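*** Fold description ***
***
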Amino acid sequence: MLSGQHVSDTRTTKSYRYFRLERGSDVLVVVLGQSLDSLCGADVLEERTALIDEIGDPDILAVVFDFADVQYFDSLLLDTLCQAWQRLRERGSKMALCNLSQVGQEIVRRSRLDSLWHFHPSRPSALEALASTENATALP
């Protein structure tokens, strides 16, 4: 069960060019950067590896991807979300997306990935939903 601290007690643990990480006791918030619409190069893959490694921490019970600064993104970010989901799912952890633009929601829907993750209008909404077991997406 997620701790109550996750809503108000987050701190930046690491910043990268394409995202920054904010961590509470058992929740990791990935704040995506504005430059995600033009991902390319080895530095992106290196940062993605660091992100997936961070998500692999067994103390992380939930991850929220915050899209507040992102209007559009490409398949590399979708692949990153899928890799993160797979790591989390292996140990029964949860994942949510928040602050998606209309275009961002459409990208996820057209990719048919919207059945994996709930969309939330804000970060507090996503954190509150993840703390509630009835809002977890159950997969076969």
